Amino acid sequence: MNRPLTLAASVVGAVVVALDGTVLTVAQPTLRRELHASLTEVQWTSTAYLIAVASLLVFAGRLGDRYGQRRMFACGMLGFGAASAGIGLAPGVGWVIALRVVQGVCGALLQPATLGMLRTAYPPERLAMPLAVRTAAIGLAAAAGPVVGGVLVTGPGWRAVFFLNVLPACGFGAIALIARDRGATARTAGVRLDIPGALLLAVTLGCLVHALVARPVAAQTVAGLTLAALTGVAFVRHERRAASPLLPPEVIGSRAVGAALGILVAASAALFGTLFAVTYVLQDGLGLDPLHSALRSLPLAVLMVLSAPACAMLLRRAGARVTTGVAMALLSAGVLVMARASGTLVLDAGFALLGAGFGTVMVAATHVVVRRADAGTAGVAGGLQQTALNVGPALGVAAATSLMGVGTAAALTVLAVVAALGAVASLALPGRRVVSITPRPEPRERAAVPAKMISDDVRRGLSPSDEV
Fold it and tell me: Which of 84, 109, 331, 396 has its CA 20 to 30 A from that of 91?
């Protein structure tokens, strides 16, 4: 696909997934009443999706690297649209839960591909602006979701929430299916898929997300976290010995990529944990209804949209280290403002700081992760980025839930510290200029790099002054 169409497909794919989650939250009470479902069953309409998508994102990214990002995007979008239509026609809550699992699998296929397609279509030095456009669109979807969901549920009913996804998902899925790729579509066709590694990682992430999101009784939580730890250790041992590991060393071996992923986890945990806690402040403390609570948080979406393109310019001028560090500091300040807010105007200022910080971090940290992967591992990089953004909110909400008994201010203070730790981690990110887009040896090792490798970089058009 050409670049404009690739960007449009990436944006629509990201928006469809983001909008689906936000409008579903509004639709759940009505869905529960009309399908005569229990509270646990309604909770599983979200939990089943989160477990499916989080456990498969990295493997889905690897599939995209092997078989082509466009193909995975097309399969994911078409499946997501078909599952959405099925949920809109579902006769009972059991069907809804099962089809939400299907949606999660399809969402895992398409989400890494939205980033992988951008990395393949755009040269590294031009990636920041497409990523900014994608982030701004997600911000708009987050703002519009509760409003759109409220209108649809009040009017046509909760089933319309799912029918909303069908046309864009199937339309762009069909376009991607019949479009031609410009250049190679499968950079790692000769590499075997690491099925045992994929299974171990899926169990690890699935148990972790279930333990955090479902919040069952204490014994089940401990059992889930223990199993996640055991399979996580087994996964690490397997990856060290595998001939074709699921996580290529050139992706996870970079200190900058590891720091960027940690920052994304910290930022999303701080943001979503704060939003969870502040919801009670708005509705219980200030007496606002759900609609007015959503409207009160609009500064977050507005600043997220505005900060995304601004981040693209900051990256060129200041580099990822300074840009991300300042953004995480803003995010931490926003959480602290929320912790001490006593009126709606102060809350508005806190929401604005949250939006400015998170929107900037999303672009800057994602830029580091995706850019430093070559085109043949862009899917895995995208899968890791999406995994961080799925695990982070689960951690943040779980932390906020556990600390709310002590007090909202205490819970938000802890989340502010989490964001501040992300600012410290930004010191590991590259500065304004780096040697290349791929991980390089540490300075003491660079003398051993063969001259032929340097000349190959020059022939590919990479300059020692390439900017992050």
Answer: 109
Q: Which amino acid is at 274?
A: T
Going residue by residue through the chain, which has 468 residues, state the pLDDT in tens, using 9 for 90 and above. 788 899 999 999 999 988 887 777 778 878 888 888 887 888 888 888 989 998 999 999 999 888 888 999 999 999 999 999 999 999 999 999 999 999 999 999 999 999 989 988 888 888 888 999 998 888 888 777 777 877 888 888 889 889 988 999 999 999 998 876 554 444 555 567 889 999 999 999 999 988 887 665 567 778 888 999 999 999 999 998 888 888 888 777 788 899 999 999 999 999 988 988 887 777 666 676 666 777 777 888 889 889 988 998 898 888 999 999 999 999 999 999 988 877 778 888 999 999 999 999 999 999 999 887 777 788 888 899 999 998 898 888 888 888 877 888 888 999 999 999 999 999 999 876 543 333 444 444 344 444 444 444 434 444 333 333
Provide the residue type at 356 as one letter: A
Reported pTM: 0.81
Q: How far apart are the first and last CA of the chain?
A: 25
DSSP assignment of 331-381 equals HHHHHHHHHT--SHHHHHHHHHHHHHHHHHHHHHHHHHHHHTS-GGGHHHH
DSSP code per residue over 414-426: HHHHHHHHHHHHG
Among residues 162, 141, 110, the alpha carbon closest in space to that of 22 is found at 141
Torsion (CA) 118, 244, 54, 63 in degrees, nearest 10: 50
- CA 196, chain centre distance (Å): 24
Residue 239 near residue 197, CB atoms below 8 Å: yes
* Contact by Cβ (8 Å): 23, 147: no
